[in-house]
Amino acid sequence: MRQRKVKNLEEKYAKYEEFLVYHPEACKGNWQERVRKAGCTGLYLVVGCGKGKFISEMAERHPENFYIAVEGNRSVLLRAMEKIREKGLTNVVFVPDFIVDLTDWFRDEEVDGIYLNFSDPLPKNYSAKKRLTHRSKLVQYERILKDDGIVTFKTDNTGLFEFTIQEILANDMKIHELTRDLHHCEYNEDNIMTEYEAKFSTLGENIKRVKFGRREGRKKMADTSFAAYNGRTVPKEDKIFGISGRAKAAIAAKGKENVINATIGALLDDEGKLIVLSSVDEAVKSLTPAEYAEYAPIAGTPAFKEAIVKAALGDYQPKGYVGVVASPGGTGSLRNAIANYSCPGDKFLTHDWHWTTYKNIAMEMGRDEETFDMFDAKGNFNLEDFEYKVNKLLRIQDRLVIIINTPANNPTGYSLSDEDWDGVIRVLNSTDPAKKVALVADVAYIDFAGDEKEVRSFLPKLEELNSNILPILAYSASKTFTFYGCRCAATICLAKTEEVRDEFVRVLSFSARASWSNCPRGPQEVIAKIYNNPELLARVDEERAGFRNMLLSRGHAFEEEAAKVGLKMVPFRGGFFCSVPCEDPDAVSKKLEEVDVFVVPFTKGVRVSIASISEAKCRKLPKLILEALEA
Ligand code: PLP
What we know:
Oligomer: single chain
Number of helices: 22
Bound molecules: pyridoxal-5'-phosphate
Largest sheet: 7 strands, mixed
């Protein structure tokens, strides 16, 4: 909307001299003087203040802050100054200009916060550099902002908003808060509408808002890095590799009988040797060169897809439409689910006890993580917190990926019961049908969780989900077929309609092509061979059942001893791991290293891999952990 020119502008401006700063560059480094004189403490910049509805309400609401409002349209700015005078506010000044380089106006770390309201979207590609959220501008904001300073950016323009998110991530800044529907979420509480927002928000697009700022330690990384950080925090050393490296060194020095290395996420026998199902080994050795050397189709060979669905679903025959796309390990499935069912800047939801890689996958793609407490005070699945977090996220996001790792959760060994699942389904069915939810069951440990039929009893329940919820299984062959290094898995959707299923296959195949292309063909052929040969399948199942029982015995041995010595642990139902909650997992893990026990610290406790230690060592461990806790 074009603003009519105000007549005799210079004359009118003369009446507002006390508000006007014509040469902000002259104030560089000295703004604090003005802030102090106005009796304020904080210094805020509002870029594009328009007719002043936002700035006048903001300055009134926060007399402790001093605001510099910038507006290049002088006729419009006049209205803003009138409003400030009418309200008798003394904590605002105006710069009648457009911003070019804010570092000319402010010295480093001089500003507490910046508001960018409904800036010009400049939709043409060649204008991208002029947008106020182009990375070249973000670098300026980052320089002039204090360490904990926040930029608040608000727009109704979807293209500009998505561009902004990418720029924030590319510039390695931290997103503190994000919503694509500000007026209908809890973040609206602190919102002050601009004139534009009040007038147009009811007519068109939702208002989007993101608050972002510096990432901690960002400067140091930027000074030393050649690589782009892209919104990720990349540790110097992988914690688990570090611990298991020390465990190996201890074994070499002191002998394996004197060391407990409970860090490894693979099934080992009592001697510490990798277990490989011999029936699977035979099938691998029977592969012809063409079977392992040829490219596989992107979504997997037809025989593999048929076999892996049988492996994942067991006897369950779904009523809906099943889509399958191969992935290199369960990791690839999780990556593709997050990539295709959430947007950059979104948070995915998972339980607080979870495999840390989830967060890394999300960070890699510019997403973030939200967790719910997995257990309540009584140690039961915490449906209440799950419901709270689902609703909280769906108030600020249009879509949500939820990852539930069950049965035999890593790191706890917990499996959701049928009642837990009923609760999850009830919560999800009460969500706004306009929102899209991908419910990903990470079933990486399903075949080592307990009775094969019982652990799949939740599958038919997924059919009760409303059509705005898409159930997805991340099914990995890594554990089931002792195939860790073969990188073989599948993402399986149980869709209500053919369209959703076909789209699932299409988008996941696209992502696969764009990241790892096709998956190894050899393991796919092996799994197809197993499922086409009932005698071989029976042998695989039988062999696996033996090792599953071995694992369960190890887990129960740990549980029994823990109960005897009074060590509190998270409820164990099956799988490769069990966990002990504690206040300072890093310290406990370090203390245990002193007695040659190696476990993995998670956020809420330490994880013990019962898959990698003998039953005798499982019995020894609880007392040692208790001693470390007490120390
Ligand atoms: N999900 C969980 C909880 C895991 O612990 C793992 C591996 O350790 C995976 C998924 C995926 O494993 P992979 O990519 O080896 O199949």
